[in-house]
Design goal:
The structure holds two protein chains of two kinds. By secondary structure, chain A is mainly alpha-helical. Chain A has helices spanning about 5-15, 15-35. The chains are: A mainly alpha, B alpha/beta. The complex binds flavin-adenine dinucleotide. Flavin-adenine dinucleotide binds next to helix 1, helix 2, strand 6 and helix 8 of chain B.
């Protein structure tokens, strides 16, 4: 096992308050990409 | 009055049937033919496979829902396709066979005006010798019952580890040289690792990833460059970081050929034949077409007009080298070119080629991932097929305005990395487009870097859990279900 994620990073990743805001941010960002439309590629 | 037959009630078939029923008047008939009486939200099988969800939480029976909504349902499987009818039936039809109750084994002709083939993949365990779920210490999480067996075996192993000084080897990944769905195996390995931690036996287990990918993070999508924490990172580096941090080893470029009791045999890209032993394994099988046959009105076999393994659609199937592949090769409407009233969304359509670069071992064996088609594109392609059929019925002539190429569509992969409201984690990755467009985005690995990003943390677990409830709500067609995007 090699520690690749620092303790500071890890505590941010698991901090419920930070992650609470991240949750909304992620949902909105994902929704924009996924529901942002799709279409063809040919002329 | 039009009759639309939908084969399969997975993400694609169920989505198509639901939209057709909502938007078409009751003058038109929507009939679903599917052998499995339950709808299953496949992505949550990962949690069934570690025992954190019961299978009843990821499934619900289809028949009562379809009855309430006015969707016809036959618990049967398609056997053969007859797109011109035959000497006794003038309409196109599907020969289906009942799989349950009084109809078990009974065959009948189901006629249609429009046909949506959403039969997904055949889980081709038989393509790898000895790879049968719950035999040879190897399991699957591809269906809810497979996942339950996996969970039982995993917890049995955890109990043994708790009670003894025994050390165990766990092997998770792909079980065939051309398997796909690496994302599901990736989620499972991280969840298993987390469970071992939770039960205090992590130090007693060696966990290894085995995959046909050339590099970590390929995921059958040729890897990706993504924005992570403000800088651009390759998926390879991200997965390597996660695996090293969790103490997970890896074997890459491995085409598994055979499984014996606790031993896999594989060939690698170097052309070496190797083995790896394990006490608990989960290997994703190859996905293949169902082997359907098709006949014209005179009974002549026309299978090649409809199928090349999976169903032939409006893709460019001209063989060409990797360097010449373009996003234009990928289908836009999922319509069969020979029979314009047949469509194949979801996994059921034949892709023009893979997305990952094809590679051969030194012995000439092809070892590389097949293209994944995840839940989100399966739902989107099903909806656009349904919308084109609805428009065509309403206009009285063919209408194909709705298009959705995987080369012009985004996808989100929210990979669970451990279960728990405060201790859970998720690796969220979005990609746009799914099939890299190297012409449009030459400097960022074929992807729009503003829309291709990664994130790791507890919020990812909450997103995945929220998606579980949202998509089951949507699939149950509860009030305003259609507002939830595919
Ligand atoms: C363990 C696992 C985890 C996953 N996690 C994710 C995830 O997190 N996110 C994501 O986006 N995707 C995920 N996926 C992929 C996703 O589940 C698939 O993309 C999706 O299920 C494909 O939908 P489909 O309707 O095309 O096929 P399927 O879901 O396979 O449905 C096929 C349907 O056809 C029916 N059928 C089969 N044979 C016949 C026949 N002869 N006649 C009639 N009907 C037939 C089947 O019973 C079924 O109802 C995961 C896959 C797996 C295996």
């Amino acid at each position: 096992m090699t520690q690749r994620i620092s303790n500071a990073q890890r505590s941010k990743m698991q901090n419920p308050l930070i992650q609470f805001f991240k949750f909304f941010y992620l949902n909105i960002r994902i929704l924009k990409i996924v529901a942002g439309g799709h279409g063809g590629t040919r002329k | 009055m039009a009759k639309i037959v939908v084969l399969g009630a997975g993400i694609a078939g169920h989505t198509a049937a639901a939209h057709l029923r909502r938007k078409l008047s009751k003058d038109h008939e929507v009939l679903v033919v599917s052998p499995n009486r339950n709808y299953q939200w496949v992505p949550s099988n990962i949690w069934v496979g570690i025992g954190r969800m019961k299978s009843k939480e990821v499934i619900f029976p289809l028949e009562p829902l379809y009855k309430r909504k006015g969707i016809g349902y036959k618990q049967a499987k398609a056997i053969s396709f007859h797109p011109e009818g035959d000497s006794s039936e003038t309409k196109p039809y599907i020969l289906v066979e009942g799989v349950f109750g009084d109809n078990l084994g009974k065959q009948e002709k189901v006629t249609y005006d429009y046909l949506i083939n959403a039969t997904g993949p055949k889980l081709a365990f038989d393509m790898t010798e000895g790879l049968l779920p719950a035999t040879n210490k190897v399991y699957s999480v591809c269906t809810y019952d497979h996942a339950e067996h996996a969970s039982d075996a995993l917890h049995k192993l955890i109990d043994q580890l708790k009670k003894s000084d025994k050390k165990a080897k766990i092997l998770i990944g792909t079980g065939h040289a051309k398997a796909t769905c690496q994302g599901a195996a990736f989620e499972y390995i991280l969840n298993v690792e987390k469970e071992l931690q939770k039960f205090g036996v992590r130090d007693k287990a060696e966990i290894t990833w085995i995959s046909n990918e050339y590099e970590l993070g390929d995921f059958g999508m040729d890897g990706m460059l993504m924005e992570y924490n403000g800088f651009n990172m390759k998926s390879k580096d991200m997965v390597e970081m996660i695996f090293e941090d969790r103490g997970i080893k890896w074997i890459l470029g491995a085409g598994v050929t055979k499984v014996e009791d606790g031993v896999v045999h594989y060939e690698n890209l170097e052309g070496e034949y190797k083995t790896e032993s394990f006490d608990f394994g989960m290997l994703i099988p190859a996905f293949s077409g169902h082997g359907f046959q098709a006949y014209d009105k005179d009974g002549q076999n026309i299978t090649e007009k409809l199928f090349r393994g999976f169903m032939v659609v409006d893709a460019d199937y001209t063989p060409k080298p990797y360097e010449e592949w373009t996003v234009q090769d990928w289908p836009e409407t999922y319509q069969n070119p020979s029979y314009k009233n047949i469509f194949a969304p979801g996994i059921a359509f034949a892709p023009p080629h893979t997305i990952s670069k094809p590679r051969k071992s030194k012995n000439g064996t092809e070892i590389f991932p097949s293209p994944p088609r995840t839940g989100m594109p399966s739902g989107i392609t099903a909806k656009l097929v349904a919308d084109n059929i609805i428009d065509s019925i309403k206009a009285g002539k063919e209408s194909l305005h709705h298009k959705g190429s995987l080369g012009n569509m985004g996808a989100a992969c929210i990979a669970s990395a451990g279960y728990g409201m405060t201790q859970g984690s998720g690796v969220s990755i979005t990609t746009y487009p799914i099939v890299p467009d190297y012409k449009k985005y030459p400097n960022t690995g074929g992807r729009d870097i503003k829309k291709t990003f990664g994130d790791i943390g507890l919020a990812g677990h909450w997103v995945k859990l929220a998606l579980h409830y949202a998509f089951i709500y949507k699939a149950k067609m509860k009030p305003f279900w259609w507002l939830i995007p595919e």
